[in-house]
Amino acid sequence: MQEQDSRATAYTTLASGPEFRHEIEIKRSRFITVLRRADNEDTARDLVAALRREFHDARHHCSAFVLGPDRDIQRSNDDGEPSGTAGTPMLEAIIKRETAPGVTDLSDVSAVVVRYFGGILLGAGGLVRAYSESVSAALERAPLVRRSRLRICSASVPHSAAGRLENDLRAAGFVMAETTYGAQDTVLRLAVRDEAAEVSAATDRVLSLTAGRTVLTAAGTEWIDVPLP
Fold first, then answer.
1. Phi and psi dihedrals of 133, rounded to 5?
2. Which of 8, 14, 27, 142 fits 69 for a cystine, CB–CB 3.0-4.6 Å?
3. 49, burial (CB in 10 Å: exposed 0-12, middle 13-18, buried 19+)
């Protein structure tokens, strides 16, 4: 997936880490929702395959996923439930999930709902509500982050000065990327919005903090997870 070519410069996704699970019961049927972060279709589909093995005795393993900064890959599967009663409401629960007031930008999310039938028929409307509620309830509780396309800028400083400069930059609100260590210097990497004014402001701040001794060099862009406020 070519995230660098996307129109969007930021979106919301699941925090990195293990899959997230949440279970509800409706009229004796168990609905186990499993959410996993996925940046490609293979990873998204792998979740379905893994849960089929884990919950091999369940009647349904319905799924939906949304991928990419522009959310241009969207798939769903009813897995034996009446057409349109499971996968589609699950997909809509992801797409319509507000991550901020009026903002619906959740992506790179694979969701599977494992259903153990409880013996009571829910009807088409009941199934739609159950599968939608299952995913919505899981998303309400799942840890989310902001994924932003940021311009990476680097500053090469002596080892003895690196720690203090990094602390000063963090205190100033900059997002720090990976630090590398050479034989003579430490290379600090900070990430700013991919805009000329932001790069200029960061350059000025580094010059000010180092009394003009360190030049900030703008490099390429990277997608970086930023905690939600």
1. -65, -40
2. 8
3. exposed
Q: Token pair of 195, please?
A: 């805009």
- Helices and strands, counts by H and E, the chain: 5, 11
Closest CA to 55 of 82, 88, 79: 79
Per the listing, tokens 């589609």 go with: 88
User: Which position has the token pair 């400083």?
Assistant: 157
Rounded Cα–Cα distance for residues 17 and 47 (Å): 14
Q: Which amino acid does the sequence have at 74? A: Q
- What's the length of the chain? 229
Q: By the 8 A CB rule, do 114 and 22 touch?
A: no
CA 81 remoteness from chain centre: 28
Evaluate whether 31 touches 115 at the Cβ level (below 8 Å): yes
Give just the sign of the alpha carbon dihedral 8, 148, 93, 16. positive
Place of tokens 């013996």: 119
Distance separating alpha carbons of residues 193 and 24, to the nearest angstrom: 40
- Determine contact, residues 32/118, Cβ cutoff 8 Å: no
Count of beta carbons in the 10 Å neighbourhood of residue 100: 11
List the strands of the sheet with 20-26, edge to edge: 20-26, 29-37, 109-116, 60-67, 73-77
Can you give the pTM of this predicted structure?
Answer: 0.82
Q: What is the pLDDT of residues 173-213, one digit of tens each?
A: 888 888 999 888 999 999 998 888 988 999 999 999 998 98
The model's pLDDT over 138-182, given as tens digits with 9 standing for 90+, comes to 999 999 999 999 999 999 999 999 999 999 999 988 888 889 998
